Amino acid sequence: MVGLGVMGRNIVLNLADHGHSVAGYDRDSAQVAALRKEAGDRTVQGAEKMPEFAGLLRRPRAVMMLVPAGAPVDAVIRDLLPLLDRGDLIIDGGNSHFKDTDLRSTTLAERGIDFIGVGVSGGEYGARHGPSIMPGGPREAYARVQPLFEAIAAKADDSPCVAWLGPRSSGHYVKMVHNGIEYALMQLIAETYDLMKRGLGMTDDEMGDVYDGWNRGELNSYLVEITARIFRQKDEKTGKRLVDVILDESRQNGTGMWTSQDAMDLQVPLPTIDVSLSTRNLSALKSEREAAAPLFARPIPKFSGDRGAFQAQLRDALYAGTIATFAQGMALLSKASEHYKYDLDLETIARIWRGGCIIRAQLLEPIRAAYRAKPDQPNLLLDPGLGKAVMARQESLRTVVGAAAAWGIAAPALMTTLGYLDGYRSAWMPANLVQAQRDNFGSHTYERIDAKGVFHTQWGPE
Ligand code: 6PG
After folding, report:
1. Atom number, ligand 1, closest to the C-alpha of residue 175
2. What is the pTM of this model?
3. Relative to the CA of 95, which ligand 1 atom is closest?
4. One of 182, 286, 335, 341 is an active-site residue; which one?
């Protein structure tokens, strides 16, 4: 393992717990010392120099790295290459951009080195006790490390949450979309929080209880579970709830943004994910928001309805939003599979996301079943069961979105989800007018509903 930050170190310890002997290297000797200390009497060796590290490895060598995406990955490859032989294997377990992974695969293949891009999800705890692992690359190269990954991966129904997903950058692509879905689910949950906090005037304790209750039902998922726990956490400094002293500006490392960027390139609509990213960016404009607040001040009316009923509608709206988010992410995977020739198996992806990863959710069971029934389902909303589940909750979503609009509380992910659903179920959309406008001002042509071919009209005078 190259890179002994908390993720790398935890994967090393996880491997060692499963009986594998592991060598670790980090250019920061303090990290090597930390590994040695934590490893105790496990079969783990630390190395302070790259050549010493390479010398510890059995041939053909398998080197996994967990370093920040971008230049650090290239730097590690550059330092490793003179120490490796043909037939050795490099595994990049970080959140690398899939296009970088493709480039690195090609360059390394020319040197006779196999390269696997692996998405690892589950944060620090997952790395230590069982992450979801998304590998892509040469299948034979993966076969060499398959038993190791299967040993350390999370288990769902006794099956390891790892599978070879496809060639080249497919693993990193799937992890990227996982993170896009992650962004949207987090934003949807945050909006339900805002509507309960400022709309219903609920306390942290009350909201913690609501999320806890939701986590016991159909919304059962890691993100809802940690949300419930977050509301109970006290701040040591002030004694307040920690969530209330955290600055309301969200940051990002880029993977969610890459999902939206590539979806734009492939022309796949995933508006709930896009708007979640934009809303993170809006949150980061704190000083502008503070300047605008007094200019656009508008009081939030006092809620006088049935609180329990509204909370149930919020729960349903979140469930509909969650299904729509997975539908959008999976639709991108389906298109990317064709475009990049990954030949992805969407059922397998749903299967390995059931445990270990940040977006793990009970809902992945019916999603998996949907792809088992119809592997080439273009959109999960067309699955009879999931489609019905969304439509049964659409009135709740409408009520929640209507309330957010009336109260003046921003709920962009919920609102956009409703727009997406209403657009998706519309056999007719006003795109004919857009086509007419394009042809009118730019002779871009249009197609007709009553004849095949491409048409252009000399539109009337202004
Ligand atoms: C995971 C996460 C992880 C990601 C963080 C932060 O699956 O374990 O997706 O890989 O780095 O969630 O992402 P942002 O900093 O972009 O929010």
Report:
1. 7
2. 0.97
3. 10
4. 182
